Amino acid sequence: MKMSDLYLQTAILNNVRHAVSTRHLMRHPDERIELAQRVCDLMAWNGAAIALAEQVHGNAVAVVDSSNDSFLREQYIYQFPGADALVCNRPNIMLGIVTADCVPILFADTEAGVIGAVHAGWRGTYARILSIALEKAFAIGAEAQRIRLFIGPSVCGQCYEVSEELAQQFANEFPQWAGEFVHGRHVDLPALNMLQGREAGVPFDGISIANLCTIEQDDLCSYRRDGTQAGRMLSAILME
Description:
By secondary structure, the protein is α/β, with parallel strands linked by helices. It has one domain: 4-Layer Sandwich (CNF1/YfiH-like putative cysteine hydrolases). Helix content is about 25%, strand content about 25%. The protein has eight helices and 15 strands. Strands 1-2-3-15-8-4-6 form a seven-stranded mixed beta sheet, with helices on both faces. α5 (about 165-175) packs across α6. The two termini are about 20 Å apart.
């Protein structure tokens, strides 16, 4: 993985344009559109339209396809209401989600020209948002064996402590994985999303986890650590 002061990238997505911004690219805690524009400028993604998810901590996935061309051309930036994940089979559209402890996921099938960006907090992980996003990607031409998937920086399992009740809910929902990834009041959200990817058919060597904890890494944004002043990181992906 390549990391600079302003962004990081992963080798597993070498064949597609992508970036995860650090806290040093943020200028205001609440910004989203400005951060997306800044990432586009930094990465020289000239002429790309920007599609963002509203992010309501659900499991709705918006498909960005030919039916969206008109308003993306007219507005340049569009936030898909009610969505926490986006999948796309159109070129020159940047998909973006913002996080500050939740799990950001980027994936691509470059042969099919399909990309995805997923915001998976505990609610989205519990509701299997990644599984749903991959199903949407398969429906527009992607194939599981060709998917390359990156699970970006988020709160790690050792730092992510929840209520006993919520931990038990996770153990009940994912009984096949709970013994390894739910310990007491600690839940490993990156691992549970990785296993959802594997369950959907993405090969083991097609998945990469950043293993960077947002709470432990000062260069990253963490709401649990910094509260309302945490700011956000943008995870973005673009198919030329």
